[in-house]
TrEMBL record:
The gene is Tmigd1. GO terms for biological process: cell-cell adhesion. It is found in: Membrane. Residues 20-113, 122-208 form the Ig-like domain. It comes from Crypturellus soui. It is a single-pass type I membrane protein. The lineage of its organism: Eukaryota, Metazoa, Chordata, Craniata, Vertebrata. GO terms for cellular component: cell-cell junction; plasma membrane. The chain crosses the membrane at residues 222-240. This is TMIG1 protein.
Length: 259
């Protein structure tokens, strides 16, 4: 596995947690936390989670393997035979929806998977200052990814923002909640707050928006046109006086030859 996989696996500590063992079933089977079939386990971000895999009804010592998604979890000696325990510490939002699977090494079709349902709030906090020129578009973007999915609301100066269709555009996915002001005006100055609420709690982020005066547009096309006119005037002036210039040069060389 790459560095990212090693970072994740580093959080899976090889301890012997106090986890309940499962009851027996007919034949050689596995159970994880007393579950003989795949199951979903709820957890909260930042918590510690223990998983215990047990071989049942075996007639010989069996070696066990653990996987996180497609990556192997390294197990210490003494934590592989018949019973194997892992601790995930801490549980993070990146673990949400991830399957931890215990397998029988001798027959890897014998396995039990645990899919984590991690509850977490969006990584949303702090403040951000934005500067925009008058009549230009500006976008305020906040991370709204959470589990359970939260409800996102925009406020301006602590009041619910009235989203006028011709002035504002809102874009929302399960990960992002953003507000675009199509043509910023001086009246748009203020503090905008992105608030995400869920049953698990709420998070917010403030955006301090400052709308600057519109900068004067430099008349580039007019300057180019004027330069072309000046250049043509000079060229035509030279052509009109070419005979006089030629006579002056001719006289100059004649005088020089007489001397």
């Amino acid at each position: 596995p790459g560095e990212g996989s090693r970072d994740v696996v580093a959080r899976v500590q090889h301890r012997m947690p106090k986890c309940p063992h499962s009851v027996s079933f007919a034949g050689v089977d596995l159970s994880v936390n007393n579950n003989a079939f795949d199951f979903t386990l709820s957890a909260t971000s930042g918590s510690l989670l223990s998983l215990s895999c047990l071989v049942q009804n075996n007639s010989q010592a069996e070696e066990l393997l653990w996987y996180r998604a497609g990556g192997t979890v390294d197990l210490k000696a003494g934590n592989k035979e018949n019973v194997s325990n892992i601790c995930i510490s801490p549980v993070t939002a990146d673990d949400n929806g991830v399957a931890f699977t215990c397998k029988l090494k001798r027959n890897q079709s014998v396995q039990v998977s645990v899919i984590l349902d991690v509850q977490f709030l969006p990584a949303l906090s702090g403040e951000e200052s934005l500067l925009v020129e008058e009549e230009k578009q500006v976008t305020l973007k906040c991370n709204s990814k959470s589990n359970p999915q939260g409800q996102a609301i925009w406020y301006k100066n602590n009041n619910t923002l009235i989203l006028e269709q011709d002035r504002y555009q809102v874009y929302q996915t399960s990960d992002v909640f953003q507000l675009s002001i199509k043509k910023a005006q001086k009246s748009d100055n203020g503090t905008y707050t992105c608030l995400v609420k869920s049953d698990f709690g709420e998070r917010r982020k403030d955006f301090h928006l400052i709308v600057e005066d519109k900068k004067p547009v430099f008349p580039t096309e007019a300057v180019i046109a004027a330069a072309v006119v000046v250049a043509l005037t000079i060229m035509f002036g030279i052509l009109a006086r070419r005979e006089k210039i030629f006579k002056v040069w001719k006289l100059h060389f004649l005088m020089k030859s007489l001397v």
